[in-house]
Design a protein that fits this description.
Blueprint lengths: L1 H44 L15 H11 L10 H17 L10 E3 L2 E3 L9 H22 L3 H32 L4 H7 L4 E2 L2 E2 L2 H4 L1 H14 L11 H4 L9 H26 L15 H27 L7 H29 L5
Antiparallel strand pairs: 1-2, 3-4
Helix pairs in contact: 1-10, 1-11, 2-10, 3-4, 3-10, 4-5, 5-8, 5-12, 8-10, 8-12, 10-11
């Protein structure tokens, strides 16, 4: 009886805290070593070595970069708004880390007869939470660019705000289409509905149910994370460094780090929404071993996520940057009408097949 009470208390209070710490640590660790992998990946494409001095094969380069960022002289311009200048990178980093809280990273695991969820917070409006936190993230860039009192930084902030607002519309419409398919806003339920890989004569993953929704969401995710070819807010060729021109030391590090954390979380969200999340083929054959299913499921989720991280990097070193008018035309004249047409077509198809009344 005492053990049962301890386990219930552990499941209700301590385990979510442990999960929050794990998600925080994994997000930071993946973000740190994404910089290393991207530099190695770019070096491979361009026939050069990449990082090779700090540790064997350069694997300590992220640690060296972190130490460099902390040790560099911190400069805050006299003409800047100092409070907002500090607040900008803090918001960018905070919102990037907050999004991982509602993502189910694996099936439930059984410890001592009690079931523990590999999710920090299973809220019934998890999809709205993700969209809301992502929307707040743009304020970190806008505030940092405006508070710098630098024309290049301000132009970068304006570009970022208009770009993110534009592509959030198409992303939101694609998410509405996904909600129509799933019938829920709960992220754990979206994952559960994609159980396994094949059922009733068709694939269970949402990608196979509506691949166009995934394509729209993926393009918008590139724009929301300011990744090439959508990196106009920090376009070095015309804006020096864009919204973070005046930043140095760890404040600059926060902005750069937030981009990689956002890339990791965006990859996890795409894996969850469209590729089954922690689900994998033949998982029902292992139903007698729930903890093994949980371990393999968590590994499956991580592998899918890292795959999309590599796709982000591949696109960066393959496709050239858009002009700004091309970027806005793609968002307003192509993606928004396409996402609306996809939403209507999905609704008509679901009505015709009797899935909605």
């Amino acid at each position: 009886m005492t053990l049962s009470i301890v386990l219930v208390t552990f499941a209700g209070f301590w385990f979510p805290l442990i999960m929050a710490g794990l998600v925080f640590a994994v997000s930071l660790g993946v973000a740190a070593y994404s910089t290393y992998v991207e530099r190695k990946f770019a070096a491979f494409l361009q026939d050069r070595l990449g990082p090779s001095r700090a540790g064997p094969w350069g694997i300590l380069q992220p640690l060296a970069d972190g130490v460099k960022m902390v040790m560099k002289e911190e400069i805050i311009p006299n003409v800047s708004n100092k409070f907002l200048f500090i607040l900008g990178p803090a918001i960018a980093m905070l919102t990037a880390l907050m999004t991982g809280a509602v993502i189910p990273w694996g099936p439930k695991i059984n410890i001592g007869g009690e079931w523990f969820s590999l999710q920090v917070a299973d809220v019934n409006i998890g999809v709205l939470y993700l969209l809301g936190v992502v929307s707040i993230g743009v304020y970190g860039i806008m505030i940092g660019g405006w508070a710098s009192n630098n024309k290049y930084a301000l132009l970068g902030a304006l570009r970022a705000s208009s770009q993110m607002i534009s592509y959030e519309i198409a992303m939101g419409i694609s998410v509405i289409t996904l909600i129509m398919l799933s019938g829920t806003l709960q992220t754990s339920e979206i994952a559960a509905q994609q159980h396994g890989f094949w059922a009733d004569g068709w694939f269970t993953w949402n990608f196979f149910k509506n691949p166009l929704t995934f394509l729209i969401f993926f393009i918008c995710a590139l724009a929301e994370t300011n990744r090439t070819p959508f990196d106009l807010p920090e376009c070095e060729t015309e804006l020096v460094g864009g919204y973070h021109t005046e930043y140095s030391s760890m404040k600059l590090g926060f902005y750069l780090f937030a981009e990689y954390v956002n890339m990791f979380i965006s990859s996890a969200v795409m894996s969850l929404f469209f590729f089954g999340g922690y689900n994998f083929p033949f998982m029902d054959e292992l139903s007698n071993h729930p903890n093994l299913v949980a371990v393999i499921g968590a590994a499956s989720m991580l592998i899918k996520t890292l795959f999309f991280v590599m796709v982000f990097m591949w696109i960066r070193w393959t496709i050239p940057r858009f002009r700004y008018d091309q970027l806005m035309n793609l968002g307003w004249k192509i993606l928004i009408p396409l996402s609306l047409a996809n939403l209507v077509a999905t609704g008509i198809t679901m009505w015709a097949t009797g899935k909605i009344g």
